[in-house]
């Protein structure tokens, strides 16, 4: 938990610093015409207001954001357009300015190139180190300590086909300590050392995370999605987080916990993108442009995680990115290409592939197999729905009980249970990626796995035929029992592991669960086709002795179905798995299973695991996939309500500095509407709290004569003042002259769409130009949560029309009065009052 200052906290965040209960927490200026300047950015105003304030110096710090706040997408885009115009206007002045314009134009490609290079290099280091440390739990290579088990036996001439993983150079811990390789004593010693190393790795990982980088825990994808939507989390993509995440990811994977490194690799890649973006002013001084780099970095992360560059681009587009223009698509593709090239050059697995479990199938699939494929999709959807509910329930319990206060103890407990239960079963003892590789692999003459022990049809002896459609031996049935136990073990442990205070990905555990289920189903269908080849299902396709069922294909389809059920990915997931297998003809089975898993999962809840964790942590994220079908209006959601304090406003030219500071000190609002006067109430603009504070401090430091009774004005020209008045303070440069506004009868479905598509932080609610209230992103999230818990039946169209367009005459038959000070009745009284009662009430001037 990271504490934050109370004046910058958000009640939606699960941090110990507390949070404001104010209605204006998430406020910022909006509009296409800004009079804001960023001292570092060279101007944050649009062209018109820039000309008006041309003689004013930019105020350093204005236009920046506090921690745990949302960026203003519209303002950032305006700043970037102004910067671009300035560069284009100067590039013909000299060769140096022309060079600067070229550097600015190519900086986007440079930053994604550096991000791809760093992502590929770090992924290669993580893969090599994780494999070595995972094998360290079982033994050590005497000839070269830095070799893992497979590399140690590469150069040995004493290996056999059946025992290709045994060689004199590789020694188990029992052989080193006891001097014997077989027997109960050696088994116990290996068991003890396996558990010891697992606990050591887990303890070191959680200790490093807790002490040096608390943000390095978890998958990182929920936070990446939130950051890409415009939220600020300082330090989450910093250099310390990158370094600790890289180290602890290796330790967490090597500890044997039911987690993967693929999800955290996206976090690692985004850290690289964030760090390199600070080398280029175009991205370091613009939060919206920086998020374009992070979108490309997330594509590079998936590219090196699965060896799927195209799938990485689609993953960034479908799953994590909030704003994805066409040039970001090109740069994401290039970053994924560079990252995949670097990883291929490193060749961490020694198989000339980007992933450990790359497979190729050479037999086609048949139409009758769609039925078991769809069944695997149903299983994936059920597993995804069950996992999301169970994991969220456990994480919520962790947050609300004392158990969550001891993360080190929790990690050690889960690691101990995992190691003790996993060691006796060979399918849970080995690395999860190696398990998936074994389950994906098709049986052939070079496979010595227990899953491939079929009886030859030639002479009845046990052999490894080219085709696997033959009678299974007891070894295959024994392997199926062990896989069934491994399936139960993986399901239970993954629920309790995801969310621990160590780097933990969900892709590999979900794929392992689906691959186990798919392999079991594939062997069952294979044996059914062998013993009942005369059934009408198999008669047309499966001849006696023919190889028509591929159990490895079922494992691949099951892996995709389970991963889709958990994450609710569709297109990107199919492309990722397609790039893993390299077989175009298996697209249809994958699509059928993935879509079935999504439909089944959506029947129990439309949220994927990442959206569920975003909601659990309270991040301000508006999901574009969520539909708004209710008939509420803007006036029912805006603040203040009837029971709230009046809306805090500033006047444009009749406030003193002491009055302004009193409003700032007495409230915790993030910004204030600026009106003409107390009598008029007409909206002039919007000023941010942070910008006001910075401007006052800057004026006191650089200007003489600024006193507490100095007049503060937001107009272009100073008001008429007595001769003995102190120097006035002009704050027009920080005023947003065109904040985004909606009328009080705007349907909320339109307001929600505006917030999603424009990335708004807030919009003001007006009635005939008079400001009534404000709607923030937080208010919309609260409203959506209330609607989920208290679902109203949809009202008939005539009722909706009546609410949206009230009659011009009141209940007494007289025309409705039009007075300046107008405030609508709150939504809490809407159900208590009759519909024909007056919909507006007048306020005294003193109430505002």
TrEMBL record:
Coiled coil: none
Topology versus the membrane: Multi-pass membrane protein
Subcellular location: Cell membrane; Early endosome membrane; Late endosome membrane; Lysosome membrane
TM segment ranges: 106-130, 194-216, 236-257, 264-281, 293-317, 366-388, 408-427, 479-500, 512-533, 553-578
Gene3D superfamilies: 3.90.1280.20, Clc chloride channel
Record carries keyword Ion transport: yes
Keywords, sorted A to Z: Antiport, ATP-binding, CBS domain, Cell membrane, Chloride, Endosome, Glycoprotein, Ion transport, Lysosome, Membrane, Nucleotide-binding, Repeat, Transmembrane, Transmembrane helix, Transport
GO molecular function annotation: ATP binding; chloride:proton antiporter activity; voltage-gated chloride channel activity
CC per GO annotation: early endosome membrane; Golgi apparatus; late endosome membrane; lysosomal membrane; plasma membrane; synaptic vesicle
Region (Disordered): 824-848
Pfam families: CBS, Voltage_CLC
First-listed, main subcellular location of the protein, grouped into a coarse class: membrane
Superkingdom of origin organism: Eukaryota
Residues covered by the CBS domain: 638-704, 735-794
Record function comment: Strongly outwardly rectifying, electrogenic H(+)/Cl(-)exchanger which mediates the exchange of chloride ions against protons. The CLC channel family contains both chloride channels and proton-coupled anion transporters that exchange chloride or another anion for protons. The presence of conserved gating glutamate residues is typical for family members that function as antiporters.
Record-stated family: Belongs to the chloride channel (TC 2.A.49) family. ClC-3/CLCN3 subfamily.
Protein name per UniProt: Chloride channel protein
